[in-house]
Amino acid sequence: MNEQTKINTDVLKAALIDGKWQDGSAGSFDVHNPHSGAVLHSVGNAGPDDVDRAVASARAAQPGWAALSTIERAQIMRRIHQIFLERAEPIAQMITAEIGKTITDAREEVFEYSAPSWAKSAEEILRHRGLSFPSTQERTRNKRLVMTHRPLGVVAAITPYNFPTDISSIALAHIAAAGNTVIWKPSEYAAVSCAMLGDVFRDAGLPDGVINIVQGRGDVGAALVAHKGVQGVFFTGSTATGRKIAEKCALRPHLLELGGDGPFIILADADIDAAVDGAINGCFYYSGQVCTSAERLLVHADCYDEFLEKFRAKAAALRIGDPSAEDTEMGPLCNPDTLARVKRHIEDARAKGAKIEQFGKEEGLYYPATILTDVTTDMAIMQEETFGPVAPIYKIKSAEEAIEIAHMSGLGLIASLWTRDLATAWQVGEALPHGSVNINETSNYWDQLAPFGGTGLSGVGRELSQWFLDTFTEKKLLVFDLGGDRYNRRAEGGW
Predict the structure, then answer these.
(1) Which helix (H) or strand (E) segment is 175 a member of?
(2) Does 84 share its domain with 205?
(3) Fewer CB within 10 Å: C terminus or N terminus of the chain?
(4) How far apart are CA 433 and CA 454, in angstroms?
(5) 98, 109, 124, 257: which is the annotated catalytic residue?
């Protein structure tokens, strides 16, 4: 993207509140291009009073939005989908400029995932049905029980930089389609690409106040989560931040998608060529900055040498460079904090005896594709989420050993398992503690119509599709007494 590409300068303001872009009360922050290091934009920073006004706007808009018929809300979601598609290319270019995702992957994000989420939410809300129950009371024939759904109310959504429009679109579309209103705090690293959706919402006819945007760093998110006017919280990000949010939420509903440890298990009978391709994607897609990345490669001793040779050759062939170039396969890391964590994990592994092989050079926020062998389970890179283009390879003797190692971190988002044996796949898949286990598929695969989420330190609840609706709606039971004869247990002999 040309860094001088014109945008509506209103999107650089601190907040979209009640349908209007507004200046903030806490100064501004700069958004940098990870490739060049240049300042792309200066964006307004929201303050506590801006958060108050955004919550007030959402609270005022919620009754009227929920009162619309389901089909009316669905029609607005479909219009957002259409306008988003029309503007997807400049949004993709902004994603590449802001976070360093390759233009190919940025286009995939907006065209294949982000924009379609709004159309999918329309279909999901139209089939989000209640239930009717029979009465279980003995000799009772005049009761009818019906469960319905109603919106939770005002929801805070705090989203990360790595899929700035995808994760946010999935969340915002389904939460709003259910009749809730939202205050959205995007990542400060992807502030402008996310703010560009604000104009999409307005031009699609989304009523003012249904989705409000507040820009800023972590303190803005903290103020939003702590606000008494917020009834529910959605967050995707680190386990450390997620733990703080869970404490603040207390009894309020919350959905947290947190860090992953990505065990990528290759057993002796695996299709090695397919596993190598899956591992290249799992380790190096978006420079490893994905919660579902393959953070630990656990390779059986019988196929270890073959896998390593083929994996090394493909890692060495990766095209690393300017993410705006059409043929680039891996760009820079997004920010200095991520780079520092990657370096810290690499140096810890080196000090503890790991052998390190790198393909490419370190420059600025660029970090080379890195393979580590002779790793041990006491290394930070085997215990924590690294979030970088690294591939620690650990030799295992059995599936049981892989399962034991997979339990060590306490994280449980997604695992990848490679074997040709159906029974082994089933048994190992059940034994792994993760929310999802992909069989003969990269760890970076999830389906938009299936539940997604982790166990343990990887989060609370499940997202995507109808699971968003389940979390952010209240279930209400209506009990009807149809009159007529009533069974009086006490009169007929008591209990």
Answers:
(1) helix 166-177
(2) yes
(3) C
(4) 9
(5) 257
Q: Is residue 1 included in any domain, yes or no? A: no
Helix and strand numbers (H, E) in the chain are: 16, 22
Burial class (CB in 10 A: 0-12, 13-18, 19+), 88: buried
| Residues 251 and 324 both lie in one domain | no
Report the distance separating Cα 79 and Cα 400, nearest Å. 51
420 and 301 inside one domain: yes
pTM of the model: 0.95
Angle at 122 between CA 120 and CA 125, to 5 degrees: 105
Is there a single domain that holds both residue 254 and residue 267?
no
SS3 content of the chain, % helix, strand, coil (to 5): 40, 20, 40
**How many domains in the chain?**
2
What are the φ/ψ torsions at residue 90 (nearest 5 degrees)?
A: -65, -30
Encoded tokens for 28: 């501004």
- Distance in angstroms (rounded) separating the CA atoms of residues 365 and 379: 24
Q: Are residues 189 and 269 in the same domain?
A: no
pLDDT digits (tens, 9 = 90+) for 7-54: 899 999 999 999 999 999 999 999 999 999 999 999 999 999 999 999
Distance separating alpha carbons of residues 287 and 333, to the nearest angstrom: 6
The encoded tokens of residue 129 equal 């049905």
Kindly report, residue by residue over 149-199, the tens digit of the pLDDT: 999 999 999 999 999 999 999 999 999 999 999 999 999 999 999 999 999
The single-letter code of the amino acid at 435 is: G
Let me know if 291 is a catalytic residue.
yes
Catalytic residue among 291, 295, 329, 385: 291
Alpha-carbon distance 196 to 325, whole Å?
23
